[in-house]
Amino acid sequence: MHPYRLPALLSIFLLLASIALTHALASLPLKLERRVNPDHNSGTIPGNVAETLPEHAAGSTSGNVAGVLPEHVRGILPEHVAGTPSENVARTISYQAIEAGFFRPHTRWTPLVSNPMRALWYYRALFHKRVPIFFTGHDGFSKRELEQAYADFGGFHVLGRPELGEHTLTVVKGRYNIPLVRHATRSVHQHALNAYSTRSVFGDTAASVAFGYELPPTHSMMRSSVALPSWDAVWEGVHAPENMAVREAKRQLERDHHISFQSADGNNQLGVRLLNNGKKEIQWLIDTRPVFRQIY
């Protein structure tokens, strides 16, 4: 071998060794990744990595679907169809959605078993024969209140907008806990209208005293020996103050067996008499003309 060939061969050997070393170092992270994470290249993103990725990269699409749906559609469609993320689930439901059968109560609500707890929870709610009535607001009905009423009483009534002709709906617990929706009977609808009108004209306290939650009657509550005050005595008595609390007004009814309220313009009077069997007789007058009279 000629002396001048030795440096050339040495250079070629060093070049090949450098290429081999570079290739070995490049494959080292891949081997380590396969050892640390067996799911590598299997299509599954590790949880700690997925949390740092945007939703479209991590493979989640529900949030994007919810963002595409119009607001009024998301308010009517069931949650699983609308694709609303769990943390942004709508807290209200519309009259139209309930009527269409989209009310689905959450199973996490447990019944309030004691009457004092129910009396506290339904402090201002209005009732028809121990079934609560709910009235629509600007955003519809509170799903939390409807679900709790469904757990406590097995159903409820909802009144939409009377000026739009929306009839009272009755929701009852059906087979397999599936809610059944129907238009309320004429008597229930009229009762709901009376309660709604009473609250609108006389305020929350008067409506709660007349149509609010009452404890189940007991033998000690029967007042067969108590003289029932006449309606003249009711109208001639002092009207309850406008800012009177619900509890205070109910105590006055228990004590005096009657109470009356007056509208802000002074033209309307609402009287409530406590009957001997524990029921209430309610009468509404405009001047001296009766608007309605019912026993509840």
Automatic annotation (TrEMBL):
Superkingdom as given in the UniProt entry: Eukaryota
Protein name per its UniProtKB record: Uncharacterized protein
Leader sequence residues: 1-24
Keyword Signal: yes
Record's keyword terms, sorted: Signal
